[in-house]
Write a structure and sequence with these properties.
The chain has 420 residues and is an alpha+beta fold. Helix content is 39%, strand content 13%. The chain folds into two domains: 5-269 and 342-350, no CATH class; 354-409, no CATH class.
C-alpha cells in the first residue's frame, strides 16, 4: 500500500519485501496504540479505527493488550494469504467495518484499520507458532522428565533479562549480515533500509510497557509442575502452551528469549521439533468415515483461525486427523513447523524518511529546504492539509510550486508513465 508518497532515492523491492525475509515492517516505538472495544464511531482521523483493530487482535492474541506500536507513515506491504486468514479469523469485525461507506460516518459499525491489523497479525502469528513449536510440537504433546532436564541443563530458571535481548546479534542478521544473507539467496540488495530485527532471531523487543530486566521464575510460569517433588510428573503440553502464549504471555516471551540466549545450538534449533519427530494421528476406525485427502492445515500450515484463543483447539489430534494416504510414519513435525514459521516470517527495519504537511506557501518553501539538506532521505510523505479557508489564488500558487518542484526533481517522462 502506498499513500501520498514519493520515493526520492534509488530503492529496490527488498527495501519493502523479499521472499527470503518476508515483509519489512516499519513501526514507531514512541507512539502506542491501545485497543478499545468501544471505538469512537465517526471520530475524525484514524485513531478510532486503530483502537478497534488493536482490540480485535487482542481477543485472539492477548499479549497485544499492553499496547502496539503505531505504524510509520510509510508504504506498507500486505500479502494475500495473510489477508485471507484475517478475513476468516475476524470476519465479524470486517463485516461490521464494511457496512461503513465513509471513514467518519457516524452510523454503522466502527472502522477497522486493516493495514495496522495485518502488520501486527503477522508478528503475533509468528510468536504463537514459535511457542507452539517449542511447547507442543517439540514435546509431542506431553511435558515430562525430558523437558524438565533440558530446562535445568540450560539454567533457564532465574535467568534475568528483557524480552528480545541479544537475539538479533545471535542470529547473524545484524548490519552486514543481512546483505550477505540476501546475496546468497539471489535477492536484490537493500539500498535504503536498515534491519533491526528478523523473525529468524526469535522474538523482538517490546516497548510497552517500558522494558526492564526481569528474572524468569519458572514456578510462576510453569505452575505446580515445576515445583512438584515428582520429577517424573507429566503435564499436557497444550495446557502449558495456552498458559504461556495467552494467559502468562510475558512468561512465554521471556522463556523463548532465555532459551535462545542460553542454548549453544544455532538459530531457532532449540525451539524446533527434533529431527525425525513424527505425530501419528489416531487410527481410522471406520474406513467409510476416513477423509481421502490431506487436511488443509497440513498443506497450508497454520494454527486455528478462531476469533478468540479460548475457543481454539490446539491439540495435535485435532490439527491432524487421519487421512487415507497418510505416510506410515505419520506427520513430520519438523517439516510442518518450519513451513508454519516460514509462512509468518518478517523483518523490522527503518528507512530515512520524512512526513510533511502542506498547509501554506511557507510549507512548500520548508519542503524545498528540507530536501536540499537531507540527501540521504529515501521516502517522503506529503499530506495535503490546506485549510478550507485558503483563498483560491493561494491554492493555485501552492499547486504550481509543488508541480514545479516535482518537475525539477524528476525531469522527463519515465517509460511506465502514460502520455498526455
Amino acid at each position: 500500500m502506498n499513500d501520498d508518497f514519493f520515493i526520492v532515492r534509488p530503492m529496490t523491492a527488498s527495501d519493502f519485501h523479499s521472499d527470503l525475509l518476508g515483509p519489512v515492517l516499519k513501526v514507531q516505538e514512541d507512539l502506542k496504540v491501545t485497543g478499545k472495544e468501544n471505538a469512537r464511531v465517526g471520530e475524525e482521523g484514524e485513531w478510532a479505527a486503530l483502537d478497534w483493530a488493536a482490540w480485535t487482535l487482542g481477543q485472539r492474541h492477548p499479549s497485544v493488550n499492553k499496547g502496539l506500536e503505531y505504524l510509520t507513515h510509510l508504504p506498507k506491504v500486505l500479502t494475500v494469504p495473510h489477508l485471507h486468514e484475517i478475513s476468516i479469523t475476524f470476519k465479524d469485525a470486517l463485516l461490521a467495518s464494511s457496512s461503513r461507506k465513509f471513514r467518519e460516518q457516524k452510523t454503522s459499525g466502527p472502522d477497522l484499520e486493516i493495514a495496522f491489523l495485518a502488520t501486527h497479525y503477522i508478528r503475533q502469528r509468528h510468536r504463537e507458532a514459535l511457542l507452539y513449536s517449542y511447547v507442543v510440537a517439540r514435546s509431542g504433546g506431553t511435558w515430562g522428565s525430558r523437558e524438565r532436564a533440558d530446562l535445568v541443563a540450560l539454567g533457564v530458571d532465574g535467568w534475568s533479562g528483557k524480552v528480545g535481548d541479544g537475539l538479533v546479534q545471535r542470529s547473524g542478521l545484524a548490519g552486514e549480515g543481512v546483505v550477505e544473507f540476501l546475496e546468497k539467496a539471489g535477492e536484490e540488495e537493500m539500498m535504503a533500509t536498515e534491519i533491526s530485527f528478523s523473525s529468524f532471531a526469535g522474538v523482538p523487543k517490546i516497548p510497552f510497557p517500558s522494558p526492564m530486566p526481569k528474572p524468569l521464575k519458572l514456578d510462576q510460569c510453569l505452575g505446580s509442575w515445576w515445583t512438584s517433588e515428582d520429577s517424573e510428573e507429566e503435564i499436557d503440553a497444550v495446557w502449558l502452551f495456552r498458559r504461556l502464549a495467552f494467559e502468562e504471555y510475558y512468561c512465554g516471551d521471556l522463556l523463548l528469549t532465555a532459551i535462545l540466549n542460553l542454548t549453544p545450538e544455532p538459530g531457532l534449533t532449540s525451539l524446533l521439533p527434533r529431527p525425525n519427530s513424527f505425530f501419528q494421528p489416531p487410527p481410522i476406525v471406520d474406513d467409510d468415515d476416513a477423509s481421502p485427502q490431506r487436511p488443509h492445515i497440513y498443506d497450508v500450515p497454520h494454527l486455528p483461525l478462531t476469533r478468540t484463543w479460548e475457543e481454539a483447539d490446539f491439540t495435535l489430534e485435532t490439527l491432524f486427523p487421519s487421512w487415507t494416504d497418510l505416510p506410515p510414519e505419520g506427520v513430520n513435525l519438523l517439516d510442518w513447523t518450519l513451513r508454519l514459521l516460514g509462512r509468518y516470517r518478517y523483518t523490522m527495519g527503518s528507512s530515512p524518511s520524512h512526513f510533511t504537511s502542506i498547509r501554506s506557501l511557507a510549507s512548500m518553501n520548508q519542503l524545498k529546504r528540507l530536501m536540499e539538506g537531507r540527501p540521504e532521505m529515501a521516502l517522503l510523505a506529503v499530506n495535503d492539509d490546506i485549510p478550507a479557508y485558503t483563498k483560491e489564488k493561494q491554492r493555485k500558487q501552492m499547486g504550481e510550486q509543488l508541480r514545479q518542484w516535482g518537475e525539477e526533481r524528476w525531469p522527463g517522462r519515465e517509460a511506465w508513465e502514460l502520455s498526455d
